[in-house]
## 1
Amino acid sequence: MPPNASPGLWTLAWRRLKRDRVGMISLAVVVAYLCMVFLAFGGWIAKDWTREVGVNYAPPVFLPDDQDPTAVALVKPVAQPDQVDLYGLQDPLARQLAQIRAHDPVGAQQPIVARRLTLPLGGDKWGHDVLTKVIKGSETSILVGLVAAILATALGTLMGALAGYFGRWVDDSFNWLYGVFTAIPYLLLIFAIAAVLQQKGVSTIILILGLTGWTGVFRLVRAEYLKHKSREYVLAAGAMGASHARRMFIHILPNTSHVILVQLSQNVVGFIKSEVILSFLGFGVPVDVVSWGSMLNEAQNELILGKWWQLAAAGTAMAILVTAFSLLTDALRDALDPKLKY
Amino acid sequence: MNLGAFLIRRLWQMVPTMLGVVLLVFFLFNWVGGDPAYILAGKMANPADIANIRHQLGIDRPLWEQLLIFVRQIVTGDFGNSWATQEPVSAIFRSRLGPSLMLLIPMMLLETATAVAVALAVAAWRGSTLDRALMAASTVMMSISLLVYIIVGQYVFAYLLGWFPVKGWSDDFWRNLTTYAVLPVLLGLMVSIAPSVRLYRTFVLDEIGQDYVRTARAKGLSEVRVLLVHVLRNAAIPIVTNVLMGLPALLTGAFLLERFFAIPGIGREIILAVERSDFPIIKAATVYVAMATMLANLLGDLLYHWLDPRVHLE
Amino acid sequence: MLLSVRNLQIGFQTGKETPFEAVRNVSFDLPECTTVALVGESGSGKSVTALSILGLLPNRITRMGADSRILWRGKNLLDQGEAELRALRGREIAMIFQEPMSSLNPVFTVGEQLMEGLRLRLGMSRKQARTRALELLSEVGIPEPGRRLDAYPHQLSGGQQQRVMIAMAISCQPSLLIADEPTTALDVTVQRQILELIRSLQQRLRMSVLFITHDLALVNEIASEVVVMKDGQVREAGSREAVFSSPEDAYTKALLACRPPLGERPMRLRVIDDFLNGHSLQDIPLRYRGSDPADEIVLEVKNLEKGFPVREGLWRKRLFRAVRDVSFQVPRGKTVGVVGESGSGKTTLGLTVAGLLQPDGGEILFRGENLQVARARDPVGFRRRIQIVFQNPYASLNPRFTVGHILTEPLLLNDIGGTAAAREKIALELLSRVGLPRDAFMRYPHEFSGGQRQRIAIARCLSVKPEVLICDESVSALDVSVQAQVLNLLQDLQDEYHMSYVFISHDLSVVRYMSDQVLVMHDGAVVESGDADELFAQPRQPYTQELLSAVPKPWNP
């Protein structure tokens, strides 16, 4: 056997990507974010974001100020206000608050805490460290975007493949479903589902985004399958006796993989943006979870007071990731384009 | 085929899709959502109240009867009263449509005009520094959350600089258009312009690569004429369809603007309804916006056929 | 001298790599009122040369040689600014292209496009321009010019579209018309008409024509001077007589010899290598082809029908009958040629016989057994009996598979070979049988040329040992020199394995060369059929006669 196996299309695409400087920098940024998410998810970093380590609205360290950055203030924690009992109603959040307190013995039970006057990226209303908060928020937002995108892309690919390949009534029924889901504007559909589903949670929002976001992938994958199923190489495979499943998934699927990959990364960006909006409006992650959206929600009121650092931190963290992801998508599209041969 | 027959067939084709939308909404609210009586009855419900409410809403009847009630509501346009304010749903929508349109229409016109102009310019100088710089800028612009645009824009231009009112709305058309709507429209533009420019640029570039452009150049036409007559007339086909089909998306983009600037439009009403679990409003909004979307798509199709002589109405 | 090209050197720079040299040191002259043909296969640089004359190459990536000159009436066009060049385009030098459909702007009417040049370049009023446009349309032989003026390009046939392009080109009475493969996309009968039109216009308007083509036979019909190009260089230049009767360059000789002759049928076609390596060029023995009553019939097609639904009106669907009542027999080891113009249904016939489309009516009998029934009974066994080689060598191989994978997959699917090692051995044997090196096994299709890919596709078919091979325009996308090699391979394989061929092509001389029997198809039906030699010598039907008379005549001193 000749030992010099020649590079396949994936290897060639990787070589093209490596030559694209912007693409490689974007890739590095995305990988760095993913590592951060992984570490935060595993609990190695930013675990104790709920600790109130600074004074209320502690400014960032780099802000020109006459305060000594290492100075600490001794603050007596604000006494928990007694539960106001009205009409015999329970505070609907009481249980969650209790849970938070139970998980966070440091913040709630220590009588007197040494609190820093400044924090690396500032502090929020309660003195949480914005830096750890951003890391934890990134974890939530990116995880939601990533998992939902994988779900939506898998759904869209499967449905698009079936519809495009088999045509006829299979195509008609999937197209009908596509028509129904695209007739309702995306955000409105998500709102409607969020209104109906009373329980909030990270998995709920992943499901909502994943089950509604498949339409774009479906349309493109279906078009690819329509195109490829009458290509000569697929016809030839049919003439050789390859089964439908073999033609669909072994012959055609790898040839549409560039479309799917680009769609996947576009979906990640889109879903991160959607999650941020949903959480901002309070329809997304629950109150005991921090995400970029919930941070922006808090930051909105802080800005009026001139405390801009939480907004800047969350906004920048998101902008950098999304920029890198979009540039990476463009680079991937160029590198994977089968029209470019070398 | 003539226009009438085309319209009839397309409207006929919409029926199953519309049915699907109705079923989806019904399925969501009557099956996934659980029993709305508990939401409506509030926190201090007793079983008798709940049974009473269930009877009023008709959800103690079999599912198919409930579906029938829902369909009747859609056809007659009478979705009953809002659970939160007891106002009739139809009245709410009638009064909220005006402000929404006052945001949408200027936004659409401004966006299309600016985006087409910029796209033509960057396509004419494709590959140049200008092109690359604008494309890089648009990527960054698209990456900033629209929430940041709105929060910062409102803070800087309205709160700090005082160029515009922070929020509000009046009963006077001109006052709304010239004072209250300006900042929201401009912020909306900031958000939507970058993706449009990128998309239209690819449309224009697709056309520039066509053989007929080479023919036009070989005829000795000036580059300006080639671009503004031959290329633009062809690129207009996808652009116009795209603008029309993007209308519903623009509508949802206006949701947040309306909320932040306290503009009494449909978007703000929907967000309020979701916050208050005001089901009749959400149901009505979903169904009617879906209808509007489908009509916008039909209009887009018609324009497409009108603009492109190659496509026959079929 | 109207136009002199001197030391033309054109490179294309993409990225940071060294520029790709498309044209190297090309020089030729174009006198007034003459037709010069620029002949070459794909990649010869002939179109790039033509576009450079008008300055239509993309500025950003084009690198011109320092001492390159394009002299138009003594003035170097490469020194001219964009404004001067634009004044020349359309007025002095006009151009028509290969694809008339895409070369016309689809959203403007024929009249608007014709009048645009007249009004902007000649300053005519709207009314004058319209009158002149009508004259031009009748001049290029478009029937009912008044009605066609308001038609959109897609409402015209391909031939009429090219006539409109020509009308547009001559509208400002240029001194030079550059015609870049103007008839390649057209059917042979239409090609003949367009050729006649260009020839008559050249004489009537006393202009020069630079005729760019890959087809030497066309050159013989239209040009008085010939320039032969290969790989960006001029291989030979001279008068038509000189180039055709006593070619000096080996490549020109090969080009002249590798087209199948219409009159006789040598055992094999001569290929470029024969000339370049100076192989002995003594006469090759002739081959006899024709039907024999003793032939064993492998495949029989009876009253085959295949249609596609077309929407008509509001709800109705009409069946477009692509194949109508077609019957023929394929004997073992022989070739049935199917010839027809575009839209004649020949490809649909091929796909249906190959089992890739379901017939609407009629029967396909394989050794007397209905193929549909047989396939249902034994899908694996019958699938492979009939294989097909397609036209487009770039689409017929899966780009994500190695050649080895492509060749062993059918073996695996059809349970041939048993072990992976045995399958690999078979695949390597197939590779050497179709003339490809062993190391092709580990490589991907994109590394091969069109002719090599077609060899791989043939090897893939051979792997399942088919009895009938359908060749659907299998050599049409290839350069003539490569075409000859693949045709030789197909003949060798037929001699060796006694396969039957159904050879589908629009190219009459290729079909005649390859076939024992020929079917002439038109509008889905068989117009005429018979033994190849007989049918081509004495066509009985008017359609066949028209088709045959349209074939470009070879050089005949």
Note: Residues 69 and 118 of chain A are 6 Å apart (CA to CA).
## 2
Amino acid sequence: MPHDNVIETCALDKFFGPVRALAEVTVSVRRGEFVACMGASGSGKTTLMNILTCLDTPSGGRVFLDGQDLSALDEDGRRTLRATKIGMVFQQFHIIPYLNALENVMLAQYYHSVTDESAARKILADVGLANRLTHLPAALSGGEQQRVCIARALVNEPPLLFADEPTGNLDEENEIIVLGLLQDLHRQGRTIVLVTHNPDLAAHADRVIRLHHGRVVE
Amino acid sequence: MAGVEKINRMFWRLVWRALAAGRGRAALAGAALTVGVAVACALTAVYFDINAKMSRELRTYGANFYLGPGEGGALMMEADFRQILADAPPGMVSAASPWLLGVARAESQKVVLAGVSFEGLRPLSAYWQVTGGWVGVDFDDRNAMLGVKLAEQLEMREGGEFALLRDAERKRLRVRGIVETGDVTDSLLLVNLAVAQDWLRQPGKISHALLRVANDSGQAGAWARELRVRYPALDIKPIRRVSAAEGRVLEKIRGLMGLVALVVLTLATLCVNTTLTAGVSARTAEFALMKALGARHAAIVRQILTETLLIATAAAAAGGALGWVLAQILGRAVFASPIEFRAPVLPLTVTLALTVALLAAIVPIRRAVRTEPARILKGE
């Protein structure tokens, strides 16, 4: 039975040497919720996202993802969780430059289980790139590249989508397109965590978690 | 399941596309590996063929057996020399020439006259540098060969004529060729044995004889002992200086070839390592993304190894072919004969290429596996 809270953290700490990047962070995100994580540069929002996406481990405290205690997982367990339950979109796109749009999406399937070209085509069509399947990243605009990343994040149908400044490198037109896509996904019942320092973008979320010097202030 | 691709297809797509995208680096690594493998292959081919080649080559550097008069004697009988040759086991003696040395007067100068068997001497003296030609047959009594120093003293060139003088008697000889050996032969006047015996008034006598005998398993020593029993008045011995030198030279050349191969392969390994490391550094974000998407370390290791082994396989094929050509060039340049194919060369070449590539890939693979996605994907 699925848990109501798809993300739960309890007194989460993270130290980088003497620097305390996160201090007793306790947050929760309900299934199907669209949450924005805001804060100034250095507030700890990316550190929090890295821990929640299993790319990093906390120094203290506990994290539950879809009911699973991350502290009980080893590197391989975290890798499996990342491949099966988490979709990630980054500010800097991060697309393999020598694979076309379709292959970039299929890459996520490949590391998840098996590739399914028809599913990859469909998800690219859903983000408006049906006519860009065989284009290499260099032939795509920034907005199109980010949409490939969103398609890649969604192709394995993860329960959680993390987006770290997804519109940070986009012009206004593409920002609207990408934001619209996130809203559509939210409406479809997807749980989304959006990391941003842009209040206009955060305004589209159901709820805002505000960080300041590694602490939740709101 | 319709539309579902095999995982392997995606894997090979990744590998080929990555190689194509980084073809400059792949070509550079491949070229370094090809050169390394080519040199190693050539030296290996020569190494395995060198025993036969060196033995043959060293044999061309002269005689390895001496027959001469015993203690106190200046001359020996030519008949003994002929009898020894006639009694020699089949295949034992591959070349032989008698030598009769004496002083004569040529034009106005005293010269050392050497009577030889040109037919026997020629295969014993492959290292002689001859300008003009050899005296072809042993019954030729009109032609002679001059050592280069003597030719200068007599101001003679090939084709020139001079006379041997004895009292009022003159014997005209034509210079067939001029010999440069770097030893005392450069000062000799070489004529056929019969001419020298007649002119020096030593019929049926020789000063000594030089032979080249088979000595693959040290049989020259045994034959010398046997002959000394039969001819106690003669001094009979293998010329150990050449035989021993043969082994030492072989050993040194092998060692040198091994060293050169090692140095070249080490350089190739470093070059491939540097190129692969640079390639992995340039692809850090790619590997970080793969890990973020759930790639196991093994998947990244497999991808880099496969790319490296494909480069190595191509380099092994190209390097092997190039090395074979290089071996033939070396064989012809050094031994004046082609290098024969020896079975161990092929597996050794492939093993070397793969080993060098795998060694070179260790550091880049470790670097790729240690990529921290959290840091790299944030753009730090």
Note: Residues 7-57+247-377 of chain B form one domain.
